[in-house]
Amino acid sequence: MVSRRDFLNLSAATLLAGRNALPRGTSMRVGLMKNELLQRRLAGDPQRPQYHLMPPANWMNDPNGPIFWKGQYHMFYQHNPNGPFPESMNWGHAVSPDLVHWKHLPIALSPTPGGPDKDGCWSGCAVVDRGVPTLIYTGVFPQVQCLARSEDGLMTWRKFTGNPVIATPPQGMETTGFRDPCVWREADEWLLAIGSGIKGQGGMVLLYRSKDLIQWDYLHFLCKGRKEELPPGEDPVSTGEMWECPDFFPLADKHALIVSTQGAVVYSLGAYVNRYFRPEHQGKADLGDSYYAPRSMVDEKGRRILWGWIREGRSDAAQHAAGWAGVMSLPRVLTLGPDGALAMAPPPEIEALRGKHQRVESLPVLPGSFPLLKGVGGDGLEIHAEFEPGTSEAVGLMVRSTPDGKEQTLITCHRSSGQLLVDRERSSLSQDVGRGAQGGPFALGEDETLKLRVFLDASVIEIFANDRACLTSRIYPSQADSLGLGVFARGNKARLKSLDIWEMRPISPNRLTT
Ligand code: DQQ
Catalytic one among 62, 117, 286, 423? Predict the structure, then answer.
């Protein structure tokens, strides 16, 4: 039996040395020594998340083909096993019985020399075709669509010898890109939506159909960024010239389309009629700019669960020095909100990670002062805070603060401007990291309390506000005592109704102690 830790060690050695470059004997020993060093570096890294899914080492970006299969959640993701930078993409693979605890599995897809994916296996999806798990993904370069199947329960993948299954964009179309297929079943056909766009016209999703996943016919666009929906004079490409990673699915009595516009992650809820999607309501899946390329799945409970890539907010050099880059978000259960918007909440399974609990009740929050709460804080926490904002202009939480406040991050609901922000101006004394505020529109209703559910995990912050807005951010405090927690108000006083704090248990050997 190979233990999880042994597997990770072997796997990281392979990652470090290059998959095909691990010879026997001396080089193997050198590889293991390098691995040992890398493991020590990762284990002692205070910026490395502890309860979020991430590869054993090196680079990850988009989630790919999340699928619930025979009682387990499978997650694939864009992964460079050879370094903490985006190159020669593979599909990493992990499996979980409960959405929370993960086991790494061998890499699912790697580029085939001389093949249509020789320069990378880019993003895609997973479906089950007559009982056979099947991946449909983009091979590069040029961007073509490929297929691979697994006959042994998702452990190994055999690429279709006739790849690519779609070799070019539709005839005569000068696209800005042609990638990230999303496939679903409709009656006796497969439908495929693919991310694309046209220069000067904007992003679009193209629609194909097939009887067998191999022979595909182009139908028409499913949805596109339309000039007529924009304010007069606004550039039609303001919603992006290329829509990446389309995710299209039914949600309650609507359909949802999520696209990554090389900037924001935009969701649309609307009607799917005659194989065209007409948006009726649009919003941002995340108010920050650290969350990207999400993909969803349905589990056995029928829940629609969305996963995103949380990218780094520090320099390439810092990522290189760390030996890892990129984190998978926590899962978000999607529902149709009472206001017609997309509602997002973490699944209850996350609560399995909760450890020590502390609670504070009914505290006046006075403007101007930023006191730290005594005896609470940390860098691996789940925090629930409910505020009665009163007549305050702004109210919020201060996290990861040093006792002297030289490092601190503010999570602020600005009532006057209707914004939810993570202010990172003083998050770190390091010069190598992103600063400034991240966030976007978030208005509290009259008499509505502010309910913040915040997940702190080393350099990751994920915020769910009143179950209808999410904000993901990255911070890299440099001081060991940047652990303090406080509440604050501006303008006028507010009241903290309650504050619950749980220490979260690590899920992975990211920070090995021996
Ligand atoms: N990343 C993938 C592409 C996708 C982009 C390559 C989005 O397939 O369009 O790693 O982050």
Answer: 62
